[in-house]
Design a protein that fits this description.
The protein has 296 residues and is an alpha+beta fold. Helix content is 46%, strand content 16%. The chain is built from nine helices and eleven strands. Strands 1, 2, 3, 4, 5 and 6 form a six-stranded antiparallel β-sheet that branches. Helix 4 crosses helix 8 and helix 5 crosses helix 8. Bound molecules: adenosine-5'-diphosphate and magnesium ion (MG).
C-alpha cells in the first residue's frame, strides 16, 4: 500500500477542494491498479509536487526503470501526454504509456536528485530554461489543445471586476498596466506549443541529455507567455531585467511582445489571487514594475 505524502494531500485539498480530497482518498487504489496493470514494482521513495504523486518503478517484464505519475485529470493535465508525445523525448521526458480516462502516465525515469533547482548560479539556470523553451516552443500545436487566445480573452473580461477589488493603488496600478499590455496583443495570441510551467523544479537531468523538461501544462500560444516561471523562481528583483533580456535573446523574441505576454501572465496569477480572496502576490507585482519601468 502506498502512503500518500501529507504535503500533497494538503495541496490538493487547498487547490481542488472536494475533488482534491476524493483524488487523494482514491490514490492508493489507483496506484495499486496501475502497478498491476502495467506490471510495475515500486523501487524507491514516492515523490510529489503540488499536483501529482510520482512513484519510481521498475517493469517486472523487462526491468525498465520508469516513473508512474498519478494526478487529477483536469483541463491542465489533459494536455500533458499530448505535448509529451509531440516532443517525443526531444528536450522533454519521454512518455512510455498513458491512460486517458484517469490521466495516469508512465514516464521515462530521469534523475530526481539532479534538478535544475540545485544548480547554484541562477543565470546558468535561466539560460538552461531558455534553451529548453527555444526548442519546445518551436513546435506548432495540434488542434484541440487549450488556446492562449481563449484564456486571454476571458482574463480581460474578468479583469475590471477583479481590479476593482484591489484597494491598494500601488497594487492596482501595475495590474492595470498588465491588462493594458494584454489588450494590445490579445488579437495575436500565437500558436506555438507552450509548456506553461517551466520553473527550475520542472527540469531534471538524465544520462541521455543534460536537462529535460517534465510536467507541462500545455497550451497553444505565444512563447512570451512561457517566460514568467523563470523570472519568479529564485526571485530576485534586481535580476528580473537581466533574466528577461537573456531569455528573449535566446528565444529570439520581440521584446515588446514578450513583455506584453509576460505581463499577461502576471495578470493571470493576480486574477487567481484576487478571486480567491487574497492580495496579489507582491513578488509578481514587482516583476511587472521592473518590466514596465521607464517604458510608459
Ligand atoms: N520522469 C521522472 N523521473 C524521475 N522523477 C520524476 C519524474 N517526473 C517527476 N519526478 C519527480 O516527481 C516530482 C513531481 O512531479 P511533477 O511532474 O513535477 O508533478 P507536479 O505537477 O506535482 O509538480 C518532481 O518534482 C520530481 O522530483
Ligand atoms: Mg512539477
Amino acid at each position: 500500500m502506498i502512503d500518500v505524502p501529507h504535503a500533497l494531500a494538503t495541496a490538493q485539498a487547498e487547490a481542488n477542494g472536494e475533488a482534491g480530497r476524493a483524488f487523494i482518498a482514491a490514490l492508493p487504489t489507483l496506484a495499486a491498479h496501475f502497478l498491476e496493470r502495467w506490471n510495475l514494482t515500486v523501487d524507491g521513495t514516492p515523490m510529489h509536487g503540488r499536483c501529482a504523486l510520482v512513484l519510481p518503478v521498475t517493469s517486472t517484464m523487462d526491468g525498465t526503470c520508469a516513473a508512474l505519475k498519478l494526478q487529477l485529470l483536469d483541463e491542465e493535465s489533459t494536455g500533458e501526454p499530448v505535448a509529451l508525445r509531440i516532443w517525443a523525448g526531444e528536450r522533454a521526458v519521454r512518455l512510455l504509456r498513458h491512460d486517458g480516462p484517469t490521466g495516469t502516465l508512465l514516464l521515462e525515469r530521469l534523475d530526481p536528485a539532479r534538478m535544475l533547482t540545485h544548480v547554484p548560479d541562477p543565470h546558468e539556470a535561466v539560460l538552461v530554461i531558455a534553451r529548453l523553451l527555444a526548442d519546445l516552443t518551436a513546435v506548432p500545436t495540434p488542434a484541440g489543445m487549450r488556446r492562449l487566445g481563449d484564456i486571454a480573452a476571458r482574463m480581460l473580461e474578468r479583469a475590471p471586476q477583479a481590479l476593482a477589488r484591489v484597494e491598494d493603488p500601488a497594487a492596482r496600478r501595475p495590474l492595470a498596466d498588465c491588462a493594458a499590455a494584454l489588450r494590445e496583443v490579445v488579437d495575436e495570441p500565437g500558436d506555438r506549443l507552450l509548456h506553461w510551467d517551466l520553473h527550475d523544479g520542472n527540469v531534471l537531468a538524465a544520462d541521455r541529455a543534460p536537462w529535460l523538461a517534465i510536467d507541462p501544462k500545455p497550451l497553444a500560444g505565444d512563447p512570451g507567455f512561457d517566460l514568467w516561471p523563470a523570472l519568479a523562481n529564485r526571485f530576485d528583483a534586481a535580476d528580473v531585467r537581466w533574466r528577461f533580456d537573456a531569455m528573449t535573446d535566446v528565444l529570439s523574441l520581440d521584446r515588446a511582445r514578450a513583455r506584453a505576454w509576460t505581463l499577461a501572465r502576471i495578470l493571470q496569477n493576480a486574477l487567481w489571487d484576487i478571486e480567491n480572496g487574497d492580495r496579489p502576490t507582491a513578488q509578481h507585482l514587482e516583476i511587472a514594475r521592473r518590466l514596465t519601468e521607464g517604458r510608459t
